[in-house]
Amino acid sequence: MDMDVFLATAIALLAGLLVTRVFKYLHLDFPDVTAFLLAGLLVGPYVLGRLGIAGLGFPDMDAVDSLSVLTNTALGFIAFAIGNEFRLSQLRNTGKKATVIGIVQAVMATLLVDAVLIGLSVALGGQVLPLPAAIILGAIASATAPAATLMVVRQYKAKGPLTDLLLPIVALDDAVGLILFAVSFGIAQAVQGGELNVISILANPLIEIIGSLVLGALMGLLLTMLEKLFFSNSNRLSLSISFVVLTIALSSEHITAGPFLISFSPLLVCMMLGTVFCNLSAFSGDIMNRADKWTAPLFATFFVVSGAGLELSVFRYPVIILIGIVYILVRCAGKYLGAFLSSTVTGCEPKVRKYLGITLFPQAGVALGMVVTAQAIGGESASLIKNIILFSVLIYELIGPLLTRMALNAAGEIGEIPAEKRSRSRFADRNRELIYTAIDARRQLFGGGTNKVSSPRFH
To answer: Is the separation of the CB atoms in 179 and 434 below 8 Å?
Structure first.
């Protein structure tokens, strides 16, 4: 990375922050994620980057791709944070429901998209939309973006039955999506002219999922043991950060053992790392709170860079737009229907049944990762899959966070107090607690009595 890329990154982050201020000035109640993505489009290769002024924006997609280390690191920390939602104390109430809903909504989206696109392929004679492409697109439809969902939940401090189910479902969605994609990709290759390979369809995906969970669990155990050697939460935070980065590096490795491919999903590995750490470490609550503050600018930069990487060139192809619109609408219908039916069967509250499916619409990183693998199909199918998913990600990333916020708000899980005021209120409450604690300590030390003075907020 040269100096121009660093400068462009700094300008991109600044642009993202300024766009959030513009939204608030115009009284546009959009999530910050949307503002960051729009700022990314602004400094991307299709707007300011096209001017060719050094440091003003990203001149091309190679400049955006040069920050892949940053984006991969951000995704690792996002997955680590989502692992915090798998505390056993919470899963006792939501674990069964989240598992059933997570599987059903992913499978339903895949089946519905497959049915519609395969029908469209047959109707068009397989020329415009090849059958292998239709099958693979159905599998990619199962993936949901955890990053945008987590950011919206954090920004608005969403809390309630819907939120409690949402994050575990989004995390589980990654594992289900990997299996569906592997099976569909193997079938698509057979349709393309190859042979069904049981190892590539079933064995390798299971190895990846099980291996990811085992690696994440081992790293979580090691992190928990090493945390006990430190007595400063600042040092514990530094150790946690180094472990997330180390885990990302290890999960990027691929090992070939005969016909088997041993690989890992960085998202699953980091989620498992966070899950084990949060359930075993007594310091996890404070460490996670500190990590949230440390990673805030990292996440903001991640979304700005993601916005810069959105391909606007796909709008040149009417066929891509048409198939893309069909894909988007049918996938949303599958997500909503699957979530509604499964949440009804599991006895969820009416507001959860009504709004959960909407929060599962966003799609980005995991889907794009599947696209990279799908390029091995070759021919027109590979190009078509890439362009349709790029088009859909552009739409999902811009409207998905907004729909998630609207759904959480309609479910009554977003408070009326703005986030900034809430943070100042918590800061003031914390200061008062420290003052009262100091008064208690002084009284006990100098014989002023032992009656504890309580903060008014607890009366």
So the answer is: no
Task: Identify the pLDDT of residue 193.
Answer: 67
* Cα 246 to the center of its chain, rounded Å: 20
More confident residue, 436 or 50: 50
Inter-helix orientation angle 68-83/233-251, to 10°: 120
Q: Which residue spans within 222-344 are E strands per DSSP? A: 255-257, 260-262
pLDDT of residue 233: 81
Contact 391, 324 (CB under 8 A): yes
In this prediction, residue 154 carries a pLDDT of 82
CB burial of residue 49 (10 Å; 0-12, 13-18, 19+): buried
Q: 260: helix, coil or strand?
A: strand
Contacts of 426 by beta carbon, 8 Å cutoff, 6+ apart? none
Backbone angles phi and psi of 256, in degrees to 5: -100, 125
Distances (CA, A) of 429 to 423, 424, 425: 10, 9, 6
List the Cα angle 259/186/200 in 5-degree steps.
20
Rounded CA-CA distance 358/335 in Å is 8
If pLDDT is split at 50, 70 and 90, which confidence band does 222 have? Answer: very high
Per-residue pLDDT averaged across 386-405, rounded?
84
- Mean per-residue pLDDT of the chain: 80
* Confidence grade of residue 221 (pLDDT, cut at 50, 70, 90): very high
> Could you tell me if 307 and 397 are in contact, meaning their C-beta atoms sit under 8 angstroms apart?
yes
Closest CA to 105 of 359, 357, 398: 357
What would the pLDDT profile of 93-108 be if each residue is shown by its tens digit?
777 888 899 899 999 9
Token pair, residue 215, equals 């690696």
The DSSP code sequence of 359-387 is GG----HHHHHHHHHHGGG-HHHHHHHHH
Q: How far is the C-alpha of 73 from the C-alpha of 78, rounded, in Å?
A: 9
- Asked if residues 268 and 170 have their Cβ atoms less than 8 Å apart, the reply is no
Query: Which one-letter amino acid corresponds to residue 280?
Result: L
Helix then strand then coil, in percent of the chain rounded to 5, is 80, 0, 20
Amino acid at 320: I
Tell me the C-alpha distance between 103 and 11, whole Å: 41
Q: Model's pTM, two decimal places?
A: 0.73
